[in-house]
Amino acid sequence: MNALDILRSALRSLRANKLRSALTALGIIIGVAAVITMLAVGEGTRLKVAEQLNSLGSNLMVIWPGTVTASGVRLGAGSRNTLTEQDAAAIAEEIAGVLAAAPALRGTGQIVHGNLNWSSVIFGVTPDYVLAREWRIARGRALDDNDLRSSAKVAVVGQTVADMLFGGTDPTGQVIRVRFVPFTIVGLLESKGQSYTGQDQDDIVLIPLTTARGRVLGQAQGRQRTVGQISVKMRDGSDMGAAEAEVRELLRQRHRLQPDQDDDFNIRNLSEIVEAEQEASRVLSSLLAAVASVSLLVGGIGIMNIMLVSVTERTREIGIRMALGAPRAAIRLQFLLEALMLSLVGCALGVLLGTGLSLLASQLLPFPTIISPASVVAAFAISAAIGIFFGWYPATRAARLSPIEALRS
C-alpha cells in the first residue's frame, strides 16, 4: 500500500463524515482567524504608534525649564524660564554629535485673516527648529537667518491653521494678524497629524524668535533672552543616553548649580519614549496572539477527540486491513494524514476568515490593520504541528490494535 493509496483512503474517510469533519475543523478555523485578526490589529496599532512617535522627530531631546527655589520657596516646573539662547548655542558647539539645538518660545493667541479667526499655538523659533523636528516645507520656504536678524514679520503655518483660515488653498503670500501684529505667510508645513499624546501638531504658527520676543510674546523675555524650550537633534547613530548625560552636565555648569542642588531644567529623551511605546505595542501584539492561540489549542483537542472516536468506530475496518497485510505504519500514517488534512483545511479557511475580519476591522478602527505574510506562514506551520501532535496518539492507538481483537469487536 503506497502513500497515494493511504492519502486516498484518508480522504474517503473524511468525506464519509462531512458534517463531523467540518465541525472538527471549525475549532481550527476560529483559532486561526482569531490569531490572524489579532496580529493584524496589533501590527496596525504598532505602526500607528510608531508613525505618531516618529512625527515628533527621531534622535531628539527636548529641554524645558525645571523647578527653581526663590527666597526659600520651591516653585513649580516651568514657573520661571531658566533656559537661554546661549544655552542652546553652547549645546550645539560643545556636545559632540549635535546636528541642531533650536531654542523656542511658546505661546497661544488668536490668528486672524479677513473675517476669519482661529486660536493656535505660536512658536518663536530659529531656522534650526524645522531641522530638529524633521519638519518639511510643503509650499513656500522656511524661516532663515535674515528673518531672525531683522526680526521680520513673516510666518510659517501648519496645515490646520491653513485649513481654518484659507479653506485648504495656498496660504503663502497672504497676510495674517498674530496677536494683532501683521505677518506675511512665507511657508506651509507638511502635515504631521496627532502626536502620541493626541495633540494636533499641525495647529501651529512659526515666527522668528526675535520677532516673537520683541513684538508678540512679551518684552520681559526679550531683555533676558530666555527661551521656553530647546530641541536638540542628534546625528544618526548617536548614543542618546550618553548625549543626555553630557547635556545635563553642561547645563548644570552653565547654571552654576551646586552638587546638592536639583536640576533647574528637565530633559525628555524622545528616543526612550519611542522605544518604550514600541515595546509596549509588541507586548500587546504578543498578548493578543497568545489569547487567540487558546482557540487553536481547543481546536487541536477537538481533533484528537474526534480521531479517538473515529478509531473506536473503525476498529473492525482496521482489523480487516491488518488481516489483509496492511502494515501498522500505514494505519498510523492514514490517521495522521486525516488529522493533518483537517488541521490544514481548517487553517486555510481560517486565514480567509481572518483576512475578511481584518479588512472589516480596518473600516471600523481609526487605523489600517496589517496582515503580515509571516503570520500566515506561521498559522499554517502551527496548524500542521497541531494536526500531527494531536493526531499522533489516536494514530498510534489505531496502529497498536490487535487484528484478532479488532475483528472481534
Number of helical runs?
14
Series of secondary-structure elements, N-terminal to C-terminal: HHEEEEHEEHEHEHEEEHHEEHEHHHHH
Low-confidence stretches: 69-79
Structural class: alpha+beta
Topology:
Elements: H1 3-16, H2 18-54, E1 60-65, E2 69-70, E3 73-74, E4 83-84, H3 85-94, E5 98-113, E6 116-125, H4 128-132, E7 137-140, H5 145-149, E8 154-157, H6 159-166, E9 175-178, E10 181-189, E11 204-208, H7 209-216, H8 219-224, E12 226-227, E13 229-234, H9 240-254, E14 265-269, H10 270-313, H11 315-323, H12 328-364, H13 373-399, H14 403-408
Structure report:
- The strands form 3 sheets. Strands 5-6-11-8-10-9 form a 6-stranded mixed beta barrel. Strands 2-3 form a two-stranded antiparallel sheet. A two-stranded antiparallel ribbon has the order 4-12.
- Helix 2 packs antiparallel against helix 10 (270-313), helix 2 packs across helix 12 and helix 2 runs antiparallel to helix 13 (373-399).
- It contains 14 helices and 14 strands.
- It is of the alpha+beta class.
- It folds into 2 domains: 3-52 and 276-408, no CATH class; 83-254, no CATH class.
